[in-house]
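pls design
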């Protein structure tokens, strides 16, 4: 899959317009060095697109298998589960598109705005339960992440929000899920997802127990080097993800 073909399929129509690549490819004044740099950038972007789409395809395959194993007790819960899965996937596809528009404009050192990705996920999942479950955002500005962290983070947070909505609140009850992002005094990025449900059972070990959702969260967290913590109490469950300080000179 070529980068230009992917750009041509972008529904927003501006995926790579800001980079000016189309003009540069036919401009003889660039020179050999410029062409080599551009080819390297395109090759790197192609590689990242392939990796992100492979990761997303694997996620869809696992979720589809997990959904197929669940008993269809009634039409409504099954329909709701499918809708949540589709919105989850849509938000992550948007994350990939946004990431590569940013990459095209900023080059290989471009960073991603964490708040934009979290806002997209909160909006997508919150819209399904509008009026019953409120997804509240408290997203600090200035939290930048590396491009290769964007999709795993989107998948982790989407999974945590989905689990909170599914398990913290019975179908006939209202609830509130808070999603917060910030930098701590050491410069690490911290993301928290809190619900006001009953929390986890006393015998549940978040480091080893749970189904596909918990396994995905743990494996993706390990992939990006994040520290994960689940704090359960009578007031609800708090999930906390901490990304270690990234050298700021590598971000722009």
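designed seq:
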């Amino acid at each position: 899959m070529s980068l230009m073909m992917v750009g041509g399929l972008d529904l927003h129509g501006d995926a790579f317009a800001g980079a000016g690549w189309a003009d540069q490819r036919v401009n003889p004044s660039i020179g050999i060095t410029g062409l080599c740099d551009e080819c390297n950038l395109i090759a790197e972007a192609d590689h990242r697109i392939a990796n992100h789409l492979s990761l997303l395809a694997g996620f869809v395959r696992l979720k589809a298998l997990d959904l197929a194993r669940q008993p269809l007790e009634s039409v409504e819960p099954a329909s709701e589960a499918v809708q949540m899965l589709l919105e989850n996937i849509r938000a992550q596809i948007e994350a990939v598109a946004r990431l590569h528009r940013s990459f095209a404009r900023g080059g290989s050192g471009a960073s991603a705005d964490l708040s934009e990705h979290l806002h997209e996920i909160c909006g997508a999942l919150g819209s399904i339960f509008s009026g019953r479950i409120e997804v509240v955002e408290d997203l600090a500005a200035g939290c930048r992440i590396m491009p290769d962290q964007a999709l795993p983070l989107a998948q982790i947070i989407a999974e945590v929000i989905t689990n909170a909505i599914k398990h913290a609140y019975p179908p006939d009850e209202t609830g509130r899920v808070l999603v917060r992002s910030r930098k701590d005094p050491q410069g690490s990025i911290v993301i928290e997802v809190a619900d006001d449900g009953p929390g986890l059972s006393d015998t549940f070990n978040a480091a080893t127990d749970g189904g596909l959702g918990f396994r995905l969260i743990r494996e993706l967290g390990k992939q990006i080097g994040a520290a994960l913590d689940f704090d359960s109490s009578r007031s609800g469950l708090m999930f906390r993800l901490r990304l270690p300080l990234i050298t700021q000179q590598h971000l722009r």
